[in-house]
Structure formats: C-alpha cells, structure tokens
C-alpha cells in the first residue's frame, strides 16, 4: 500500500512544465520577454513618448532652436515607430512571386485589314531637275 500511495502522489504532480521535450526550458521565457519588450516599444508607452517628442520639437521650432529638417526627421521617425507593426504585417502578407502561378496576358487581336489596292504609276517627277546644277 505504501507504493501505491507514492505512485498516486507522483501522478498528482503537474508534468507539463515544457511544451515539448525538444524545446529548451528557457525558450518560453525568452519569447515572453521579447513579447513584453515589443509591447513596450510599440504600445502605449511608445505612443506617449512620440507625442511628447513632437510637442518638444514644436516648442523648439517656435523658439527657433531647431531646424525644419531635423524636426521633420523626428516626426517621420515617430510615424515609422508607431506604424512599424502595420508595415511589417503588410510586407509579410505580400505574396511570393516564385510560388504563384504565372498569368499570361495576350495582346489584343488586331482586326484583319484588307490589303490596299494598287496605286496608279506616277507619270511625272516634279523633282527631276532639282539636283542638276545650272538649270
């Protein structure tokens, strides 16, 4: 009976510490820390810092302490920072051209035009004497 109670105690211990036997135990902690860092960089804190940066740049421009080019670069950087997840998702959703089927676009068919009738022969040349000197 002592062995059956020990086996019952072992069966009650949660064994699902890892997702897989082949996955190292630190992978989930690295993944969660990367997710946390991404949420910090692209979340509400980043949006707040961008708003503060744009306000400070605007005040510096009003007082004449910063150039227009430098302030424009700051604003563009804020747009890129805030829009980075959307840009990455858009670039990842672009279909791979090597795996897609080729679509052949044929040129439009030209109408069959009948050949033109024969022109009458020219009887006189208006420029016959133009190349002769002295005439």
Strand content: under 5%
User: How can the largest sheet be summarized?
Assistant: none
Task: Give the mean pLDDT.
Answer: 76
Order of helices and strands: HHHH
Inertia-based shape: elongated
- In DSSP terms, counting alpha (H) and pi (I) runs of 4 or more, how many helices? 4
Helix content: 40-55%
Q: What gyration radius follows from the Cα positions, in whole Å?
A: 39 Å
Distance between the termini: 138 Å
Q: Spans of 5+ residues with little confidence (pLDDT < 50)?
A: none
Q: What labels describe this entry?
A:
135 residues; mainly alpha; 4 helices
Kindly describe this structure.
The protein has 135 residues and is mainly α. The protein has a domain at 48-92. Helices cover 53% and strands 0% of the residues. The chain has helices at residues 2-12, 27-42, 44-63, 68-92. Helix 3 (44-63) packs antiparallel against helix 4. It is elongated, with a radius of gyration of 39 Å. The chain starts with a helix and ends in a 43-residue tail after the last helix. The model has no long low-confidence stretch (mean pLDDT 76).
Topology of helices and strands:
Layout: H1 2-12, H2 27-42, H3 44-63, H4 68-92
Helix pairs in contact: 2-3, 3-4
């Amino acid at each position: 009976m002592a062995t059956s109670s020990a086996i019952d105690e072992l069966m009650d211990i949660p064994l699902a510490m890892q997702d897989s036997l082949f996955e190292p135990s630190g992978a989930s902690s690295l993944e969660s820390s990367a997710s946390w860092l991404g949420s910090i960089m692209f979340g509400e804190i980043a949006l707040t810092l961008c708003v503060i940066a744009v306000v400070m740049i605007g005040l510096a421009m009003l007082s004449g302490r910063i150039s227009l080019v430098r302030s424009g670069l700051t604003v563009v950087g804020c747009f890129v920072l805030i829009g980075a997840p959307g840009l990455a998702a858009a670039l990842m959703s672009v279909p791979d051209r090597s795996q897609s089927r080729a679509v052949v676009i044929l040129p439009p068919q030209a109408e069959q035009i009948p050949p033109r009738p024969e022109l009458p022969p020219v009887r006189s040349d208006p420029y016959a004497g133009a190349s002769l000197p002295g005439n």
